[in-house]
Amino acid sequence: MYPFVKRFLDIVFSGLGLICLSPVLLILGGLVKATSPGPVFFAQKRIGLGKTTFTMLKFRTMRIDAPADTPTHLLRNPLAYITKIGAFLRKTSLDELPQLWNILKGDMSLIGPRPALWNQDDLVAWRDHYGANGLRPGLTGLAQIRGRDELPIEVKAAYDGEYCRNLSFGQDCRILWRTVFAVLTGKDVSA
After folding, report:
1. Which of 37, 42, 109, 173 matches a 20 to 30 Å C-alpha distance to 8?
2. What's the Cα-to-Cα distance from 154 to each of 75, 151, 157, rounded to whole Å?
3. Residues 114, 188: Cα–Cα separation, whole Å
4. Closest by CA position to 17, among listed 85, 99, 122
5. Closest C-alpha to 102, from 36, 148, 146, 44
6. Burial level of 20, CB count in 10 A (0-12/13-18/19+)?
């Protein structure tokens, strides 16, 4: 029963978020466009529900000549590619706001395992091992509140599996609350 309630809540909160935050989205989009050449949004193929692919949106935070489909932390000199507004967007997690559209469309959920890159076969395999590929990926999740960018892939996947086994409204509320705290304090953010 909860998966149906969860999807209903995703639709309501992402729709309200897009409406209420539309001035913020317009301002941030304008800043991205005004401060560096290229598109406002960064669109990237990600792994979704049942290991299908979808296009995830973010505000673009890097120069257009940055290597494609490489996680930032694996770049030789990532700071050379991140724009000034991009550094701010990443630090505050505001670059993630366009994913409200992905949630409204049904590609994502507010809470769930973060969507793997299309080429992150190791993460997908670990999630198979822990039974975590059967849920919509989330804007935030258990792994994000327990270490975010600092966790090894197998640990992230174990947390994703734990989330799936304990799927509940109460767990989602706790994760959402701790995410808000982590974003406001900048805890475990790796720009």
Report:
1. 42
2. 21, 8, 5
3. 15
4. 99
5. 44
6. exposed
Q: For residues 158 and 140, what is the distance between their CA atoms, to the nearest angstrom?
A: 15
3-state secondary structure at position 117: strand
pLDDT in tens, 125-174: 999 999 999 999 999 999 989 887 678 999 999 999 999 999 999 999 99
| Token pair for 120 | 């992150």
E-strand stretches of 23-92: 41-47, 53-59
Element (H, E) at 139: strand 138-140
The string over 38-77, giving b where at least 16 C-beta atoms fall within 10 Å of a residue's C-beta and e elsewhere, is: eebbbeeebbbbeeeebebbbbbbbeeebeeeeebeeeee
Closest C-alpha to 6, from 129, 139, 181, 124? 139
Backbone angles phi, psi at 139, to 5 degrees: -65, -35
Among 122, 115, 117, smallest CA distance to 160 is for 115
What pTM does this model have? Answer: 0.90
Instruction: Give the pair of three-digit tokens for residue 22.
Output: 């539309």
